[in-house]
Amino acid sequence: HSVGIIGAPFSKGQPKDGVECAPNKLRAAGLLERLQQQGCAVKDYGNLTFENVALDEPVKGSKSVRTVGSANQRLSEAVKAVKRDGHTAVMLGGDHSLAIGSIHGHTAAVGPVSVVWVDAHADIHTPLSSNTGNIHGQPMSYLLYELQSKVPPLPNFSWMKPCLSSRDLVYIGLRDVDPEEHYIMKLLTVKAFSMTQVDQLGVARVMEETCDYLSKKPIHLSYDIDAIDPSVTPATGTPAVGGLTYREGIYITEYLCQTGLLSAVDMVEVNPLRGRTEDDVHSTVSTAVDLLLGCFGRRREG
Ligand SMILES: N[C@@]1(C(=O)O)CN(C[C@@H]2CCCCN2)C[C@@H]1CCC[B-](O)(O)O
Ligand SMILES: [Mn+2]
Ligand SMILES: [Mn+2]
Predict the structure, then answer these.
(1) How many angstroms separate the CA atoms of 300 and 36, rounded?
(2) Which ipTM value was assigned to this complex?
(3) Which of 95, 176, 254, 269 is catalytic?
(4) Quick one: DSSP state of residue 289?
(5) Most buried of the four, 74, 172, 173, 241, by CB within 10 Å?
(6) What is the pTM of this model?
(7) 125 part of the active site
(8) Per-residue pLDDT tens for 116-167?
């Protein structure tokens, strides 16, 4: 595997400080060395620098719109460049609003992709349906063709166009979905395996059905660490009980790795400041590292 790492120390898609520290925390935990030790070629493209747009007043309820738009434009260019260099792109967030730039840039480089969105949340609010105004709960609405009429033109977002069909999206791990999001998902018949289906089918069957459902397009795995149960990964901004076990989370990455279709991975919402103890932070960061290692060939059998 040839991996290109992009650090995206960005937090303005949500209100809690600390998520911008995750890229360096993941590096300090030995992510690159561990990838190299398991046989990957690794190129570190460093951390992006993002401008804080002054007087970034809310627009139609969405907060920090200009700053989020500018950050994602930069990220889109960076992901496109990593793909053009021939690597699997790994974007270290940062909050989940960064999926806008990551998926946009990935698509710009390789054409239409499939998205596997592993998350406790659907992140499919529109700016108008969101109850919080936090854009990390909205990225999917900026990306989906089918929601284009529901997203008003926003400042610093004119650089992008929707680039994803709802038919090419699968959710895994949902358990904290707002009514407005559920309505949108039903309307668009989005394929979703909530924690109920994980319980009913088991993670192996969920992965089989996910890959049977998706076409053979390159896969963009957008992994929100809060998909994993907070007993394992507590250091995150919006924890929700009843999540994936460590083993289920790893199995998802092992399964997608062996498809040979994995083309870009986001690892987002790790927030080292949200751990109550050092152990909380260590457990969260090391689980995120292990999930990424699973994407690139690490097998528990040895
Ligand atoms: N839908 C949300 C939004 O703010 O839009 C509301 N939710 C928090 C709220 C807590 C109380 C019970 C209902 N849910 C967080 C979610 C965004 C998660 C972003 B992610 O990147 O962490 O997935
Ligand atoms: Mn998310
Ligand atoms: Mn989430």
Answers:
(1) 17
(2) 0.98
(3) 269
(4) H
(5) 173
(6) 0.99
(7) no
(8) 999 999 999 999 999 999 999 999 999 999 999 999 999 999 999 999 999 9
